[in-house]
Fold these 2 entries.
Entry 1:
Amino acid sequence: MSLAADTSAPADARTGDSFDSLDPSSGRVLGTYPVHSAAQVRQAVARAREAALWWQAQGWDGRRRHLRAWKGVLARGIHELADLVHLENGKPHADAVLEIVLAVDHIEWAAKHAPKVLGPHRVPSGLMAANMAASVEYQPFGVIGVIGPWNYPVFTPMGSLAYALAAGNAVVFKPSEYTPGVGRWLEQAWQQAVPERPEVLQVVTGLGETGAALTRAGVDKVAFTGSAATGRKVMASCAEDLIPVLMECGGKDAMIVDDDADVKAAADAALWGGMSNAGQTCIGIERVYATDKVYDAFVAELTAQAKKVRPGSDAKASYGPITMPGQVDIISRHIADALASGGRATTGGTIDGAYVSPTVLVDVPESSSAVREETFGPTITVARVRDAQEALQRTNATSYGLAGSVFSGSKARGMQIARQMRSGMTSVNSVIAFASVPGLPFGGVGDSGFGRIHGPDGLKEFTRAKAIARQKYALPTPLLSFARSPRLTDQLAKVIGLVHGRS
Ligand code: NDP
């Protein structure tokens, strides 16, 4: 498989009918891709609709076989795909490998568990319908439109792609304009694995308008991952045709470090959670609340560890450049606001082109944009709090609610704090760990979105529940009929009075 497509097209095209994918470390053109028009997106969806019939006819076993073949192409091409992720997104090759490993694991989980989670289940029919056999099964929607971001261009969309496919849907995927090559690679891997019906998974490329066109192209559901601002636009567009949506949006995740926490481990996790992938992680740690007892030790440890990590594009760099040029301005504004409002950088705070140094900010007021808005850069604010209760109150004082982390020496207390965190996911004595457990649902609350990818919930997300009640035998006097006798109504009222009337 080639790493970059259509490189012969004009190199400076960012508008018109093609656009370039650029290496964020150098601005070098990696490939040129078509801007698919609304009509072309519609055609892709029409092809997918036809292919969905074939895909559904494959049954659980057939789909599992094809998904495993796709997984095999990814697993065998892991370094090639990781190179491409490194080129388009900027993250180190090793981090790209990790991302792909997790994605492969999700394909296997979805393929393996789909029959059990989604297949027909008997449901107790209850007193009123004792003569009925009741069952529920989860049927595919048909065609899912997936709109993905650039920060984890394999792992993040895979939470929709693998689960939607395993549930029996065809998919049209619009990758971010910053990582079209990765999207194309996944499509080509599918074509290689399932040559009989390549249209089951198609990729359309382009800018925001192509994503917008996908929401209006006749898909049965849209799975969106990206910023809350774009998510609102996607929802508004889908509302026109009552198209259901899955929203995986941004976050401002916090870590709580409690009195008896292992401070060294917490600092290590905060650093990785906050600065890997240059901080461009939706479930990354952007804020830390450390209790009075551990604050000084935590800041000293985090600062010391942060001084050892370094951005760059070479093989030994800890993290890469900022992928989207425009994001550098946001990071710079947040750091400036933190410093101007009384904060201090214990390390970092500098920006060199697309490279932001690892930045630890302390004494930053809660009103600062560095604490309130999604920064999406390698910066962490650390605040001193009285106790875990105050940490929770500050953690939850945000419109976002994606994920978070708790460090505590006590299992019970760690779990208690985790439960009270207003977020879809929390790790205890770890960071981002939930994302590596395929059986756990992934998603947020509030401005972080709704709906879930991964796990049984993630499979069900791409289906509609179908209820079937089958009469096993006819009642002597039918209940659901104009032929119902008044005597039966009286008997029914008496039975209900006996069963439910006593409480
Ligand atoms: P954006 O919201 O800018 O874009 C997301 C996707 O939507 C891109 O493919 C984009 O295309 C497309 N798009 C843009 N405009 C429209 C439109 N009007 N209609 C339909 N689609 C459109 O987000 P980013 O790509 O910058 O991703 C970063 C954001 O994603 C962060 O907020 C991050 O927290 C969040 N995120 C959330 C995750 C989660 O699971 N909750 C996981 C990963 C990231 P194009 O790029 O071509 O403009």
Note: Residues 147-152, 156, 174, 176-178, 207-208, 211-212, 215, 225-227, 230, 233-234, 248-251, 282, 374, 402, 444, 449 surround NDP (CB under 6 Å).
Entry 2:
Amino acid sequence: MSKRALITGITGQDGSYLAEHLLEQGYEVWGMVRGQANPHVARLRKHIGDIHLTTGDLLDQGSLISAIERVQPDEVYNLGAISYVPMSWQQAELTAEVTGMGVLRMLEAIRVVSGVGQSRTPGPGQIRFYQASSSEMFGMVRETPQNEKTPFHPRSPYGVAKAYGHYITQNYRESYGMFAVSGILFNHESPRRGAEFVTRKVSLGVARIKLGLADELRMGNLDARRDWGFAGDYARAMRLMLAQDTPEDYVIGTGQTRSVRELVELAFSTVGLNWRDYVVQDPRFTRPAEVDLLCADPKKAREQLGWEPEVGFEELVAMMVESDLRLLSSSSRPEDEPLSPDHW
Ligand code: NAP
Ligand code: G4F
């Protein structure tokens, strides 16, 4: 019997890679999608055929209960969130509701539908739950590199909401014995990354400049450092966490940190250009509070999950720039079609 997985956030970057990975592993994959005509669904269907969809919204408790009742999953991957950090200052309350309280609602849906804490205690057939926690929770870091025991000091409403999601997942594990785990994932990127995030903004910007479609790239803080990996590698780690005998949290990252300046320099150099000729610093992209440095200590994941990243930083950046060069050169793209993350 194949396992059945339900993924929230399936229309996002990670949802697509996780769906592909679980299909390869023989799973029956269901995605929860919101809205009555979500434009991201067509993109998903185009790239990943063999999935089932059900409706639901992390803001709506009843819809989550209905989704769990309908799908009867073995595993739930909660990837749905408002995930763009700057937006979390503009819509702090909505971010708390979707990215934070949404986790509680999904845990409650699983608890209610499985009867955990009432008629039944969790047993071998229980629904396993994965929460997409974030290195953004470490914020103003207390130590480097960051591991599973490093204290949190979030620096954005997004980071605060993720910390709530992390702790409520841990609490449901301890209160009800649920198989509920958090993956504390560091930044991971791909050609499917939303255009608002820095790596994709840079790969699209470099491609536009190389093709003569733009003559500058306006950026925020070039000194910030991140631990950037490839999203496809991180999807493997999510499944591995739910395949363990005991539910535990894991840090997932490469263990290497680079500055935004290094990212920009490398991306321009892949097409033979000097970034200094094109990059303009623009205070509009500076944040009210910054996370200056993130660097993972993925030792536990390596030793207990046998997880290793396969794609390095240089390969990742080249992959993204080449993909965007192909995208923007494509004659199949109508001239008046706006560039958006819809273009994978
Ligand atoms: P993403 O591309 O921004 O995708 C976010 C997903 O959340 C989309 O599918 C979106 O669906 C969905 N969503 C938004 N509001 C929702 C709501 N009210 N109810 C249900 N679904 C909703 O994010 P990602 O990069 O794939 O990241 C996946 C998860 O990992 C997120 O929780 C993110 O915070 C977390 N994370 C990401 C990284 C990273 O570096 N990528 C690192 C650590 C943690 P629509 O199509 O409806 O908009
Ligand atoms: O790509 P970013 O927007 O990612 P950020 O804020 O690190 O968040 C991402 O990773 C988190 C994991 O740590 C996830 F939880 C979260 O959902 C998301 O996927 O920005 C990276 C860095 C920041 O320090 C930012 O200030 O790049 C800096 N940056 C400099 N100029 C810029 C820009 N970021 C963006 N988006 N745009 C700029 O022009």
Note: The first helix runs from residue 13 to 24.
